[in-house]
Amino acid sequence: MVTDPVGRFLAALDPEHRENVGSAPRGDQERLAAAWERELESDDELDTLDELSPPAAEAEAARRVLARDAG
Question: What is the pTM of this model?
Answer without folding.
Answer: 0.87
